[in-house]
Specification:
Elements (H helix, E strand, L loop, with lengths): L18 H31 L9 H12 L8 H26 L8 H41 L25 H12 L1 H4 L3 H24 L2 E2 L4 E2 L1 H18 L1 H11 L13 H12 L8 H21 L1 H8 L2
Antiparallel strand pairs: 1-2
Helix pairs in contact: 1-2, 1-3, 1-4, 1-11, 1-12, 3-4, 4-7, 7-8, 7-9, 8-11
Amino acid sequence: MSTKDLSSSVSPSSSRPSVTAKLINGGVAGLVGVTCVFPIDLAKTRLQNQHGKDIYKGMIDCLMKTARADGFLGMYRGAAVNLTLVTPEKAIKLAANDFFRQLLMEDGMQRNLKMEMLAGCGAGICQVVVTCPMEMLKIQLQDAGRLAAHRQGSASAPAPSSSRSYSTGSASTHKRPSATLIAWELLRTQGLAGLYKGLGATLLRDIPFSIIYFPLFANLNNLGFNESTGKASFAHSFVSGCVAGSVAAVTVTPLDVLKTRIQTLRKGLGEDSYSGITDCARKLWIQEGPSALMKGAGCRALVIAPLFGIAQGVYFIGIGERILKCFE
């Protein structure tokens, strides 16, 4: 799960925080958000990757089976990758967003929805430098439990020779993977391009998300604009961010499903590998039907809405500004 666009979900105010404060706010919001909603994101990844409903019947069933098999911490497989990379992800996004705002708007502060949308899209494009490898590693760790359950169910069947793996040798096949091991194997065997598998699909998901989210949030938030305070109330901005984020997340779910399938390196018995976005979409449509493109849509809405709500809280409280004041 990438915590994208959190920094851009705040309502405009007359006193804008500094770049450093925004960076701190974005980092704190990302860290808190990932910690709160990561189990739901894990369920989303596993539901999107499974063919049919052989293992998990839904989000609750997935979380219950994961907790029984791996304990409470098993629901946080892959969280360390997100927690480690969320701050540099925010740094790139915030710096790029400020740059594009200055470039596209006369003073960087004048409100213009089209220009803000373009600035957000530009920042999202720059952000994938971190987002793509982060989600690449996270998905392998999140999906490991599903593969273990799939392997147990198919213990009597021979392993498919075409299945690709990020580990080599039979001794390492059943070891619990780590982000370091996966990253090293990808760099050793495929070079830097291995960490950026699915880059096109990531861009194809994140750009439409920004295009939908920015104008929708701005319009919803403006409905609660208070002339006396010069901004919408916290509650209104909170709800606006949740609604806009959820709508955008559900809308781009088909692209997220394609990205997840393409970035998953290890496949279960009978599961296809994909040569690209078109090949993945074609096989998914033919073999599993159009409904498969909406797998995990509910989970995505439940993940994105709290992330934007938490971001609103962090920015309105002004955690970054408070921390900076301590060093003045």
